[in-house]
Amino acid sequence: MGLLKNLMIKLHRRSGDRFMGMNLLYLTTVGAKSGQKRQSPVARFADGDDAWLIAGTNGGKPQHPAWYHNIKAHPDQVWFEYGGQTVQAQVEELDGTRRDEAWQKILVDQPRFDNYRTKTDRVIPILRITPV
Fold first, then answer.
1. Residue 18: is its pLDDT beyond 90?
2. How would you class 129 by CB atoms within 10 Å of its CB: exposed for 0-12, middle for 13-18, buried for 19 or more?
C-alpha cells in the first residue's frame, strides 16, 4: 500500500472513521491482477441495521476504482473494518430501481456525490455490503 494511502488511513482512524463529513469503512480486497490484499477507505451509507452502501465514484474519473475491479475478480475475498473489527463481507452490486433508490439515499446524505456523476459518462456502481 502506498505511503500516502497509509497516511490517509491513519488520519481517518484518528478522526473517528470520518473524513470531510463522511462516515468511512476500510475495505480490504484482493488485487485483480496482483493477488495482493489492498485496503481502501470508502464512504459508507447505512442501509438497514447491518448493511452499508458504497459507491464507486472514483472522484468522477472515467474508470471505476481499483477496489471495484478487485471485488468483481474476487467476490469471495472481501473484508471490511468498521468499529475496530474486521469481518468478511458479502457484496451485492445493485442495479435498476434498487440502484436508483440507493443512489438517492446516498445523495440525501452527501449531495456533493452528484458532482461525481456529472463528471463521468460511466454508470457509478453502487454496492451493498453486509457481514457474512
1. no
2. buried
- State the burial class of residue 106 (Cβ atoms within 10 Å of its Cβ: 0-12, 13-18, 19+): buried
Provide CB contacts within 8 A for 110, sequence distance 6+. 21, 22, 43, 45
**Residue 121 three-state SS:** coil
- Round to whole Å and give the CA distance between 49 and 110: 20
Q: Residue 63 gets which letter from DSSP?
A: S
Comparing 120 with 26, which gets the higher pLDDT? 120
SS3 for 80?
strand
Give Cβ neighbours of residue 85 (< 8 Å, ≥ 6 apart): none
What distance in Å separates the CA atoms of residue 29 and residue 75, rounded to the nearest whole number?
Answer: 9
Q: Which fold has domain 3-131?
A: Pnp Oxidase; Chain A (2.30.110)
For the chain, list the strands marked E by DSSP: 18-19, 22-30, 37-43, 45-46, 52-55, 79-82, 85-93, 126-131
Query: What pLDDT is stored for residue 84 in this prediction?
Result: 76
Task: Report the distance separating Cα 48 and Cα 59, nearest Å.
Answer: 26
